[in-house]
Amino acid sequence: MSSDEPGGTPAVPPKQMGAAYGLGRFLIAPLARAVYRPRVEGRDNVPRTGPVIFASNHLSFIDSIAIPVASPRPVHFLAKSAYFEKWASRQFFTAIGAIPVERGAGQAALDALDQQRALLEDGRAVALYPEGTRSLDGRLYKGRTGVAFLALQTGAPVVPVGLIGTDKVMPVGAKVPTTKERITVRFGEALDLSPHGAASSGRARRGATDEIMAAIHALSEQELANAYNEAPAQNPIERIKQVLPHERI
C-alpha cells in the first residue's frame, strides 16, 4: 500500500504545507529560544541548501521541537497521525514542520520512508531517529537501518545530532515542559555515507548505520545499550523474531 492509496497515510506535498508552517517557523522558533535558552553547538555544520538528513538520539517528546528550533534552516519530521485528528493540534504540528504518518513496522515504515524521500527530493531537510523510539532509560540504543537506506538512496548527507537534557525538560508523562532546565543541541559534521556502498546492500546499510550511531554517541555522550529499543514481546512468535537476526528499519 503506498501512501497515496486508500487506507494509507495521506501524503503531504512539500510545497503545499501552507502558511501555517511559515508562520510557525517565524513565531514559534524565536519564542522557544527566548523561553528555553537552548545551548546550540555546531550550527555551521548544517548545509544551508539542498537535501539533508538530521539523525538524532531520542529522549523526549520535545526532541522534534528542539531540533527545528535550533536548526539554521527549516526541518521536517514525521509525527503520529493521531496528532492531526483535532484542528488545534493539527495546526500546531503543521506549524513546526510535522508530517502525519502511521507508526509501525513493515509497510508503515516503508510508507514513512517514501514521505521522507519526497521531502529530500524537493531539497528539504528532515529529522529522523535511528533508534526508532524514545529511550526511557537515557541510554543510546542500536540504530535501525532506515536512515542509512534513505541517505544511500538519495545521496543526502547526514548531520548527526546529539540532544542533551530534553528528558529533564520534558520527562515521559509530563504534560508541559519545564523552564527550570536547559537543553543542549549539538550538530556534528555532515557525513557522506556513499563509501559504504549501494542502498540495496545490507552490509552497506548496516555499516552506514553504525557510522551514524557512532557520531551521535560522540555528541550525546550517552551510555550505550548495545541492543535495539523494542517493546517487550507479547507472544512467542514476537520473541522469536526479536531473537533471530533480521534487519530493523
Write up this protein:
This protein is of the alpha/beta class and 249 residues long. It has one domain: 3-Layer(aba) Sandwich (Glycerol-3-phosphate (1)-acyltransferase), CATH 3.40.1130. 36% of the residues lie in helices and 13% in strands. It is built from 8 helices and 7 strands. A 7-stranded mixed sheet has the order 1-7-6-2-5-3-4, with helices on both faces. Helix 1 (19-36) crosses helix 3, helix 4 (107-121) runs parallel beside helix 5 and helix 5 crosses helix 7 (202-220). The radius of gyration is 17 Å and the shape is globular.
So how many helices? 8
Kindly estimate the percentage of residues that lie in beta strands according to DSSP: 5-15%
Q: Which word captures the global form?
A: globular
**CATH top level assignment:** Alpha Beta
Largest sheet: 7 strands, mixed
CATH architecture: 3-Layer(aba) Sandwich
Work out the oligomeric state of the chains in this entry. single chain
Q: Which whole number gives the mean pLDDT?
A: 84
**Strand pairing plus helix content: what structural class?**
alpha/beta
Helix/strand order: HEEHEHEHEHEHEHH
Q: Give the number of DSSP strands.
A: 7
| Residues in helices, as a percent range | 25-40%
Low-confidence stretches: 1-16
How far apart are the first and last residues' alpha carbons, in Å? 17 Å
The named CATH superfamily: Glycerol-3-phosphate (1)-acyltransferase
Strand order of the largest sheet: 1-7-6-2-5-3-4
In CATH, the topology is named Glycerol-3-phosphate (1)-acyltransferase
Measured on Cα atoms, how large is the radius of gyration?
17 Å
How many structurally independent domains?
A: 1
